[in-house]
Amino acid sequence: MAKSPFLILPLILLIIIANIANFYKEDIENIKDTLYWVIHRISLNPEVIEPLQKPSTRIETPTKTTTETPKTISTTPLRATHNEIPNPTLTAPQIIEWTNKERRNQGLDPLQENATLNLIATKKIEDMFRRQYFAHISPSSTSAGDIAREVGYEFISIGENLALGNFKNEEALVAAWMGSEGHRANILKPTYAEIGVAAKRSIFEGRLTWMSVQIFGIPQSLCPHPNELTRTYIEQHDASLTGLQETLEAQKEALLKEKETTEDRNAYSEKVREYNMLVNEYNNLIGETRKLIDTYNSETRAYNDCLSTYH
């Protein structure tokens, strides 16, 4: 029985393909080896990542905060004579009350009594009686601002009014201050927010008399200071970035030399991987540092803008 030509033709094709494959077997193996080497070489030569540029650590500087505006009542026009008022009485709460009445009369907010400012006023009055002087600056060059810093009162601005003499009462004392341009300016300064007062009767220059002290303050809390911890972190990050940058530069130089000469591609690939991981760490730290710098500078600008409203 004759075979169908449709069956013979596929057999002939299979025989031809088998012969061709056998003939080119060696070449095919060579091609496979070449492809494997190329693919393997590509996998063992990963790209070396370039680190980002280290950010500038220029940080803005907070403005100097503290100012002092002392005003002294002249002893000539404002000193009450010892004989006019035999038994005057002056109290700190009433001095504050009459001071705030004057502010309300001018449409200003009343001053809030502050215990630390009271302490500053008390220390000042005790020192003047003890050392027998009547002035804003002590014989040892100490001012109200110095006392404030000593007791921990953080301020943007501080002012002082002094009075010496037996004034009839608190109303008369405040009226005397209001009659003096400089002291009136302290009492009516719109930006002052807090007050402390001390009044004491003791011996001054051989006579029993009263001294009174007003301390005015703009507390630092009204203008929050930039977070110094943020600045510390920036400085720490900057030091870390400098160290990492030096390490990366040394490693990159070594990798470039090794790239063309190494025979151990696996070892080289591992070194590149470690280098790239270090670059990622460096770049992430740069991102964090930039955010910290932006935050600190933003806080500093807000702080300085706030201070400018009180000067």
From TrEMBL:
Positions of region (Disordered): 60-86
Keyword annotations from UniProtKB, A to Z: Coiled coil
CDD domains cross-referenced by the UniProt entry: CAP_bacterial (cd05379)
Domain SCP intervals: 99-202
InterPro entries found in the cross-reference section: CAP_dom, CAP_sf
Chain coiled-coil ranges: 234-265
Residue stretches of biased makeup (Low complexity): 60-77
PANTHER family per the UniProt record, alphabetical: SCP DOMAIN-CONTAINING PROTEIN
Name used for this protein in its record: SCP domain-containing protein
Organism of provenance: Candidatus Harrisonbacteria bacterium RIFCSPLOWO2_01_FULL_40_28
